[in-house]
Design brief:
The chain is built from 20 helices and 20 strands. The chain is an alpha+beta fold. The C terminus is likely disordered.
């Protein structure tokens, strides 16, 4: 089943494809011929799942998006204080190629403008058999999770036309911000801007930052958390140059754009976002990239103020209902069928916050279930917080799931999730036992033979009476009386004296007991089943209550006493049959209790 998130991204991509403003960057000849029709959107989660639409594998040069990563390597090499003496952390309010140097020290305003990026590149020295640029390329590759290359064509073009950047490098040398050959620093800068990436790479690089510096696919801790904190802080305040204030207000994500057409944004703790489209606005940022990021932030609730908590999977547990049977007593044929087909119904328990990242983990998980899974029971009772974005995603998941001919049910005591998801025909249950019963019934009716789940059972067909002859059953039936109960009627409770044996002809009853101070459902009994043969006294309080209109045949205590006096052989045969049936059921219940009641 296609994920609602993937569908949303495809719809957004198709809509924004019609946005044709802007042109590719013209100041570097090697980039001027980029195809303005190229367009990709990617989201990468902190556990490494990537959603990608459009031209997500088309390579382009990273350009200024390289700046935070080289800056991060400088911080790792020298520490915050040493780097701060060379490069400030203040927004410049200027375009990316402005001078923006402090008058007294020549220190660049921040590492996201060209002057600051060249200064940061000058701090990267050779080590371990690699020169300075070799280490710059390596840090980018480690963030991306694969080996990256350089476009020699774009590098040559940048080097041949980069007069302003060379002037900035020499100006920085005059202030001793760059302490050695400025040409080497600016050449390394040109090369880092010429690193080839695709939109998927950028999303994973952003996800690595979102994940505290740990690459989601390789598991490598590329940089430490203190470095990530500084990188993201500078990206938030300075990454979008003279548009940074409007960006932070409207989008609210640390981000970096590049004149190659790429844009990378980060939602700390949750995901990395990338967009690729070469047509640029007057700030040097991708027109479609800005539009897509604004839409994603607003429609997915990704602004850091709205999604400040750490992102983690909202899946607490997931198991087929065969791991936690309902406790309904069934015949051998029905029990065998549920053992065979029970994997088609799955229970998914959620917990924690259900904001974008939590909802994404649920949507992805349920969307990836095999087609043979027909029923999903969604237990949301342990969800702490939920927002409108998550609700929209969950509702779209439910709709898509049911359009495919499958069913979803919700387990919830009260809350916004059930109000939204159960507004239509989606069932709502207060506990997992009731939900699993519902799922079992659907599986039996869909995969079993007609009549496997009977609505009415005649006395000769009761499992408890199988050992008896037809004449013996007829003799017992003459001594029985009919009883009817309405939905909700209390039929038996603890402390009552033995009332006889109840044979359920139609309808259902539920038994409940008290556990940890709360009354919990124990089992459900339906047509063809019996109760009352085991005394209800002693132990935890037990109740038997009608769940719908119920009709029973009752062999009362008085009738049993007369039977024992007048026909002792028939009474003995009855008690033997009932004892065998009761023993079988007790054994079954003990096995079921061992694996159920996750409530």
């Amino acid at each position: 089943m296609r994920s609602p998130i993937e569908r949303y991204l495809r719809d957004l991509h198709q809509e924004l494809t019609g946005l044709t403003d802007g042109v590719p960057f013209q100041n570097i000849p090697g980039m001027a011929d980029a195809d303005p029709g190229d367009f990709a959107i990617c989201l990468a989660t902190v556990d490494g799942h990537v959603y990608e639409v459009g031209d997500s594998r088309t390579e382009f040069t990273i350009q200024s998006i390289s700046k935070p990563f080289t800056y991060g390597l400088a911080l790792e090499d020298h520490g915050l204080d040493a780097v701060d003496r060379k490069v400030d952390v203040e927004p410049s309010g200027d375009a990316f190629n402005e001078i923006s140097l402090a008058r007294d020290t020549g220190r660049p305003a921040n590492a996201m403008i060209n002057a600051g990026a060249i200064a940061a590149a000058s701090l990267i020295k050779g080590s371990g058999g690699r020169d300075g640029f070799g280490r710059i390329l390596d840090i980018h590759s480690r963030f991306a999770g694969r080996s990256l290359d350089v476009s020699e064509r774009v590098f040559a073009s940048e080097s041949a036309t980069g007069y302003r950047n060379r002037a900035l490098a020499h100006l920085l040398r005059s202030f001793d911000v760059i302490e050695d050959d400025p040409e080497r620093a600016v050449e390394n800068y040109f090369r880092q801007c010429s690193i080839l990436v695709n939109a998927r790479d950028l999303a994973l690089m952003g996800a690595t930052l979102a994940n505290g510096g740990r690459q989601p696919l390789t598991g490598e801790q590329v940089v430490d958390l203190e470095t990530v904190q500084r990188m993201l802080s500078v990206m938030l305040t300075c990454g979008m140059y003279d548009d940074a204030g409007a960006w932070t207000s409207a989008v609210g994500l640390p981000a970096k754009s590049g004149v190659g057409g790429g844009l990378m944004a980060v939602l700390p703790g949750q995901l990395g976002i990338s967009v690729y489209s070469p047509a640029l606005d007057r700030h040097g940022s991708s027109v479609r990239g800005i539009a897509a990021a604004r839409r994603l932030s607003a429609e997915m609730g990704l602004h850091f103020v709205k999604a400040a908590r750490i992102g983690r999977s909202a899946i607490r547990a997931h198991y087929p209902i065969t791991d936690a049977p309902s406790g309904v007593r069934r015949g051998q044929e029905a029990a065998d069928l549920l053992t065979e087909q029970g994997h088609r119904a799955q229970l998914v328990e959620l917990h924690g916050d259900l904001l974008f990242a939590g909802a994404e983990s649920v949507v992805r998980h349920v969307s990836s279930l095999p087609d043979e899974v027909e029923i999903v029971l969604l237990d949301v009772r342990k969800v702490d917080e939920v927002n409108d974005v998550a609700l929209n995603l969950m509702e779209e998941l439910r709709r898509t799931f049911e359009v495919d001919g499958r069913r979803m049910a919700v387990i919830d005591d009260a809350g916004r999730i059930s109000e939204v998801l159960c507004a239509g025909r989606t069932p709502l249950f207060p506990g997992s036992t009731e939900a699993i019963e519902w799922a079992e019934e659907r599986l039996l009716r869909r995969h079993g033979r007609p009549g496997l789940v009977p609505r009415t059972v005649a006395l000769p067909d009761f499992a408890a009476l199988v050992p008896l002859s037809a004449e013996q059953i007829a003799a017992l039936e003459e001594r029985m009386e009919d009883r009817e109960y309405d939905d909700g009627d209390l039929i038996r409770r603890s402390g009552q004296k033995f009332g006889g044996i109840y044979f359920i002809v139609s309808g259902r009853v539920a038994t409940s007991t008290v556990r940890d101070g709360h009354r919990v459902r124990y089992t459900t009994l339906g047509p063809g089943m019996t109760f009352g043969e085991i005394a209800l006294g002693g132990g935890a309080p037990v109740r038997v209550r009608a769940e719908e209109k119920v009709r029973v045949r009752l062999l009362s205590a008085d009738a049993i006493e007369r039977l024992e006096r007048d026909e002792p052989e028939l009474a003995l045969a009855l008690w033997k049959a009932v004892a065998v049936d009761a023993y079988t059921r007790v054994e079954q219940n003990l096995q079921e209790v061992a694996v159920r009641d996750r409530d």
